[in-house]
Write a structure and sequence with these properties.
Protein name: MFS family permease
Shape: globular
GO molecular function: transmembrane transporter activity
Membrane topology: Multi-pass membrane protein
GO biological process, one term: response to antibiotic
Order of helices and strands: HHHHHHHHHHHHHHHHHH
Distance between the termini: 37 Å
CATH class of the largest domain: Mainly Alpha
CATH architecture of the largest domain: Up-down Bundle
Helix content: over 70%
Number of strands: 0
Pfam families: MFS_1
Length: 502
């Protein structure tokens, strides 16, 4: 049965002044997104303590991180479509409740396998809260400046959670690694209680012909297998039979998925949305942006801790300027996007990202923080503040309400799969020589030399994101010239006016 729609929030969302309930709704959604991002970054610093306490090997310990990524990245497509079909409010709140329970469970277990299982279930729940939350925003706030403002605040909270997760983890791990697992639980419970009162009900999409079960099975299986294969490849080898056969199976599943989506009347993903150049640029931009950022954070963390001997807290504080810049920009970026458009803002952000990574290539064995590391972190913070909100706005603009969950799931899939794939490739590049690991007794110079190819690769991905989005500027100029030409009075035959957009 279709849930009743509450018209008040929609009316308020179109006004210049937001009602307290509308602000409350946005804060609940921001809290969930903050927790999702926080959970991705916060566990990294705690891994050594977890391994020591639960007696986990290195190969087992990686699944504390990979289990979350597997559940999150593998089920986002299904989570986005479920929000459209089952109701965004219902999916969001149920998944948020599961997130709270598994956070509590993960902080209390005394078994490695149980901890990994809790991380997988937590990632699964995030795969439903993320697209549901984003689609609630895009269907509640009217497209244009109002939605841009809401999305800027929302995505800034995500970037802030990811950046500050390192700082919080460094502080909490000094007391106990369990606090890093337990911290999200009370915040999620508070957000859940507030969400029950504040989040408006939304209509469910009419189920014409039922659900796309074959698409859900093949799509989810392909994403799960892709993330699993990429996460395991650096350990088992990229050229091994197991890895190659897994990639072949992914290709077969994706081919079957596309064939099903082209034929079914109720697809999990309507592939027609990818005919939009802006949509494709947003998805590819998400892959290169987040994948490069996660890889850079990995290299920088290893450099500061393993090579320079910085503590977890000192390493976390090194990233603090970037997180502070992102947090302070929450209410400012929307105005920038409204004035210049998403394409220009994304291009500018990627250019700053390239500069940030390139500057970090200057690192040596005795770096000066103010002269070497700090400039990279400042540029990184500005770039994240510009790119992340703009990608979300560009991906969701012009999309019908009943497909917002689908597009949100697709964007989040691009983010998570991009992070997993590019991080795995970067890790493989760093470890390719087998001579740059501190554990093997390599010299500091050899360790540093092993990091540089990874930094070059990260910079190259940022350049790729920049070039991809530069094509959007050319497309805008072509559309503008066609619009101007078509608006001129003609005595022969009228031309169709083309709408200019990002």
């Amino acid at each position: 049965m279709t849930s009743p729609v509450s018209p008040a929030p929609l009316a308020s969302a179109s006004a210049e002044r937001w009602t307290p309930r509308l602000w409350g709704t946005l804060l609940v959604l921001c809290a969930a997104m903050f927790l999702d991002a926080l959970d991705v970054s916060m566990v990294g610093v705690a891994l050594p303590s977890i391994g020591s306490d639960l007696d986990l090997s290195t190969s087992s310990l990686q699944w504390v991180v990979s289990g979350y990524i597997l559940g999150y990245g593998g089920l986002l497509l299904l989570g986005g479509r479920a929000a459209d079909l089952l109701g965004r409010r219902e999916v969001f709140l149920i998944a948020l409740g599961v997130f709270a329970v598994t956070s509590l469970f993960g902080g209390l277990v005394d078994s490695g396998p149980l901890l990994i299982a809790s991380r997988f279930v937590k990632g699964l729940s995030a795969a439903f809260t993320a697209p549901a939350g984003l689609s609630i925003i895009t269907t509640t706030f009217a497209e244009g400046p109002v939605r841009n403002r809401a999305l800027s605040i929302y995505t800034t909270c995500a970037a802030t959670g990811f950046s500050l997760g390192l700082v919080l983890s460094g502080v909490l791990t000094e007391v106990s690694w369990r606090l890093t697992m337990l911290l999200p639980a009370p915040i999620a419970v508070i957000a859940l209680v507030a969400g029950l009162k504040l989040i408006p009900r939304s209509p469910r999409e009419e189920k014409r012909g039922g659900y796309d079960v074959p698409g859900a099975v093949t799509g989810t299986a392909s994403m799960l297998l892709l993330v699993f294969t990429v996460v395991q490849a650096p350990e088992v080898g990229w050229a091994t039979a197991r890895t190659l056969l897994s990639f072949l199976a992914v290709a077969v599943l994706l081919t079957a998925f596309v064939a099903i989506e082209l034929r079914t009347p109720n697809p999990l993903i309507r592939l027609g949305v990818l005919r939009s150049g802006a949509q494709v640029r947003a998805q590819l931009g998400a892959v290169t942006f987040f994948g490069g950022y996660v890889s850079f954070q990995f290299i920088a963390t290893q450099y500061l801790q393993s090579l320079l001997g910085w503590s977890a807290l000192e390493t976390a504080l090194a990233f603090l300027p970037a997180g502070v810049i992102v947090a302070l920009s929450a209410t400012k970026i929307a105005g920038v996007i409204d004035r210049f458009g998403t394409t220009r803002v994304i291009v500018t952000g990627f250019a700053l990202l390239v500069a940030s990574y390139a500057l970090f290539l200057r690192i040596d064995l005795t770096p000066t923080y103010v002269a070497v590391i700090l400039p990279s972190m400042v540029l990184l913070g500005i770039a994240c503040a510009l790119v992340f909100p703009s990608l979300n706005i560009q991906a969701t603009n012009g999309v019908a309400d009943h497909e917002q969950g689908m597009v949100s799931g697709l964007l989040n899939t691009s983010i998570q799969v991009g992070g997993a794939v590019i991080l795995a490739i970067t890790t493989a590049v760093i470890t390719a020589s087998g001579e740059g690991s501190p554990e093997t007794g390599a010299s500091p110079a050899a360790v540093l030399d092993s990091y540089r190819p990874g930094l070059v690769l990260v910079t190259a991905f940022a350049v790729a994101g920049l070039l991809i989005n530069l094509t959007g500027l050319r497309a805008r100029r072509r559309q503008r010239s066609i619009t101007v030409a078509s608006s001129q009075p003609r005595t022969d035959s009228p031309r169709e006016r083309v709408t200019v957009g990002d």
